[in-house]
Write a sequence for this structure.
């Protein structure tokens, strides 16, 4: 009897789940479909839903006539360097805040946590003036430097390292290992899961970052994919299929990364939420 | 007791190591974030402009003049109103959709739970600029995917991004689509943390499904709600890429946000002192919003 009573509700629930999934996927599916259509098919009336015939001409144009190959390389280089440096720098600081005793530690940690309440845009005008004074405007360094360390990254590593038992570190100290040695040979290997989480987070936000690169990169040759795409979208408004192909190229790498490593990514979200 | 915790050579070594390990991170955060953020306040009291960008010493202190100009500017108030519209309508809507999706995913007997979760989450990781470009075409009048679908349902087409009344709601809908998966994950974790004994007890007391939701689920989610609504508000206040890509702040400034206004003033017109005043307003709004929510929810949110 309970089985029969539950069934209609379960059916409605699954219908709703499928409907929401359809709405979620539709824009992305249309993007892929339109990117494969001959020029003009996506913006005629009535608009085509499926490409007929399928063509790769827009992708070819992006990589031959336009600068997408270079933007892809710029984005990969910038996001890669940001990820590598932030793994090192945030894990060092996270370990120190979790396990090393020094006067004022917890007050200092509390102070930098306040940084989470400051919108990054608040810092951008003075930061731009500083970058100009340092002759770094329109350099990769200007994009990379502000993302190499983050309050969130330090927080994430610290919470994880707090869970590592002190006895383990004490045993190493008794054996004569210094704190830096302990960090490198014990903490870093034990932190592998949280470091993967951090890497996925940092890489994605560096890849998707828009406003600061838009401000500080002035030369098209240095543009990242999102900056190049926003620029392209203003010049080629009528060329919908080309824009869709450029959007696919921009977001496919991060989407693929997410599908491959989503377990780690999701863990990072809930870890950040536990203690707010 | 850790040896590093006691006085003596161990403690000294720990202090030295801490300094070494913390220095790069704290230096970078201070120089590229905390100091510039504080400098915005000083900059907002100056007439820093294009000439000062070349020779910073040329900037003069003008005290509150930028703020006087700000409150007298109709554009500033348009940006202020639009941003609040986006935060106060888009924020709660997005949180509700996230909660709804989380409840559906967490219901008993759901098949393919992981697949649905992955699909719902996918827009979160996509590049905002890229999906803003896609949605611009979806919202295209007559020939866009949305108007085509509506015509199929017998609804008259709308020029979504070209109408001052519909442009902001359109940005809100796109934003909900893009972001609901993020808070959904947090709600799913919050739902899993509700002790099952509470449900059992409510059932013993004869509570129906709706009563259990209202009296057990929702109160248990209070800390989750607090976290989610504060982070969502902070993010919504920073609205920028969507209007930059989709509407350029139009039509008739209907989607001009505070950050877009700051960007235009600061980096298109080089009114850097004035734009810094807008940044300070953004910061104060963020603080005020967080303070209001922390106060309103303090009692039930005790963790």
């Amino acid at each position: 009897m309970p089985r029969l009573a539950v069934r209609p509700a379960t059916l409605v629930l699954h219908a709703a789940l499928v409907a929401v999934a359809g709405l979620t996927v539709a824009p992305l599916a249309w993007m892929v479909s339109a990117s494969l259509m001959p020029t003009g098919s996506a913006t005629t009336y009535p608009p085509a839903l499926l490409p007929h015939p399928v063509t790769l001409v827009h992708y070819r144009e992006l990589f031959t006539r336009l600068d997408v190959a270079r933007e892809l390389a710029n984005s990969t280089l910038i996001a890669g360097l940001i990820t590598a440096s932030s793994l090192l720098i945030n894990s060092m600081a996270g370990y120190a805040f979790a396990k090393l005793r020094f006067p004022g530690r917890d007050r200092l940690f509390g102070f930098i946590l306040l940084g989470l309440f400051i919108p990054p845009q608040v810092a951008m005008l003075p930061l731009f003036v500083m970058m100009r004074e340092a002759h770094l405007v329109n350099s990769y360094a200007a994009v990379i430097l502000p993302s190499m360390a983050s309050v969130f990254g330090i927080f994430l590593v610290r919470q994880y390292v707090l869970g590592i038992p002190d006895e383990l570190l004490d045993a190493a100290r008794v054996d004569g290992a210094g704190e830096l040695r302990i960090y490198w040979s014990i903490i870093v290997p034990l932190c592998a899961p949280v470091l993967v989480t951090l890497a996925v987070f940092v890489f994605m936000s560096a890849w998707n970052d828009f406003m600061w690169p838009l401000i500080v990169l002035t030369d098209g040759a240095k543009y990242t994919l999102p900056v190049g795409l926003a620029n392209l979208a203003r010049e080629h408004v009528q060329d919908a299929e080309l824009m869709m192909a450029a959007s696919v190229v921009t977001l496919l790498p991060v989407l693929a990364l997410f599908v491959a490593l989503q377990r780690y990514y999701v863990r990072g979200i809930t870890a950040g939420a536990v203690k707010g | 007791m850790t040896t590093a915790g006691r006085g003596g050579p161990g403690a000294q070594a720990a202090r030295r190591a801490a300094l070494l390990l913390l220095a790069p991170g704290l230096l970078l955060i201070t120089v590229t974030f905390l100091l510039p953020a504080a400098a915005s306040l000083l900059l907002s009291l100056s007439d820093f402009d294009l000439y000062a960008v070349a020779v910073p010493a040329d900037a003069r202190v003008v005290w509150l003049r930028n703020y006087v100009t700000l409150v007298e500017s109709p554009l500033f108030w348009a940006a202020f109103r639009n941003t609040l519209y986006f935060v106060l309508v888009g924020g709660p809507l997005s949180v509700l959709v996230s909660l709804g999706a989380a409840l559906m995913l967490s219901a008993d007997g759901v098949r393919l739970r992981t697949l649905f979760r992955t699909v719902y989450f996918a827009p979160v990781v996509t590049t905002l600029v890229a999906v803003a470009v896609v949605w611009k075409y979806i919202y295209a009048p007559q020939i866009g995917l949305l108007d085509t679908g509506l015509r199929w349902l017998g609804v008259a087409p709308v020029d979504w991004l070209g109408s001052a009344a519909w442009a902001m709601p359109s940005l809100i809908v796109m934003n909900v689509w893009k972001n609901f998966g993020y808070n959904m994950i947090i709600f799913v974790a919050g739902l899993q943390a509700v002790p099952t004994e509470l449900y059992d007890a409510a059932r013993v007391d004869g509570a129906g499904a709706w009563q259990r939701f209202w009296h057990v689920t929702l109160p248990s989610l209070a800390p989750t709600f607090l976290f989610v609504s504060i982070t969502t508000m902070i993010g919504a206040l920073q609205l920028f890429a969507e209007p930059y890509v989709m509407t350029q702040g139009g039509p008739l400034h209907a989607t001009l946000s505070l950050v877009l206004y700051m960007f235009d003033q600061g980096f298109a017109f080089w009114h850097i002192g004035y734009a810094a005043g807008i940044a300070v307003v953004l910061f104060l709004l963020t603080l005020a919003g967080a303070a209001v929510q922390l106060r309103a929810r303090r009692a039930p949110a005790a963790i």
Remarks:
- The domain at 64-274 of chain A is CATH 1.10.3720.10 (MetI-like fold).
